[in-house]
Amino acid sequence: MRLWVAGRSASVRARRMLMPREGAGRWRESVGVGLRLVRRRPELGCVVGGVLLALLGDSWLPLVVGAGAVPLVGRRLAVRRRARERERRGEAVIALCGAVVGGLRAGKQPNEALLATAAGVEVAAAARFGGDVPGALRRAAGAPGAEGLRGVAACWQAAAEGGAGLAEGLDRVAVALRAEQRSRAELAAELAGPRSTAGLLAGLPLVGLLIGGAIGAEPLRVLLHTPVGLGCLVLGGLLEWGGMAWTGRIVRGAR
């Protein structure tokens, strides 16, 4: 009962600080704008969290930390976006091989079969107007994740110069790319456990803050307004950063 009463009183105080009665409509509008910004740029959630902690803890320190974390989180999210783009390009190369092979076996000419796929603008132009298709494929292979197009270009050039079977060559390229994709997926599945464990351990301090606030220990006041609390906060932040960096290094080494 004491825990429930203490938790409810803390939530009431926070609500009074964050949403005064006379500005409830304006507050709701501001929250809506903030949520839209966070959906568009998720790294801005660090600033939102910093503002909430600054209001609850009556200190400007969480706001400064949240603002400083924006570029770091933004870079991390950009790395994930680039990784997803690489995966999509790799899948597109495999789909291109399959589509060209299907067109060739249906009786189409190589350039005609290539035009029926979702090839890039430069590759499609070379196929349409009789240009250098292998060269266009090699240039398109420079995009991250599209490296498999070098194999497609080699098969195309071998078929054009020596009469080798293009469909058989592209089949082999697709098989090799699928095997590589399966290897990456298996590695990602094996690394998912350590990553989730590291994330869970990184979130435990927040659980401790919630429990401390529920029992009325006022952890934010201790951490933000006392020398011992500030020292613990700095030391804990450094240890947290070191643990995440170490975990990231292990994952990169495994890759």
Automatic annotation (TrEMBL):
Transmembrane found in the keyword field: yes
Compartment annotation: Cell membrane
InterPro entries cross-referenced by the UniProt entry: T2SS_GspF_dom
Transferase as UniProt keyword: no
Domain Type II secretion system protein GspF: 122-211
Membrane spanning stretches: 60-79, 198-217, 223-246
Protein name listed in UniProt: Type II secretion system protein GspF domain-containing protein
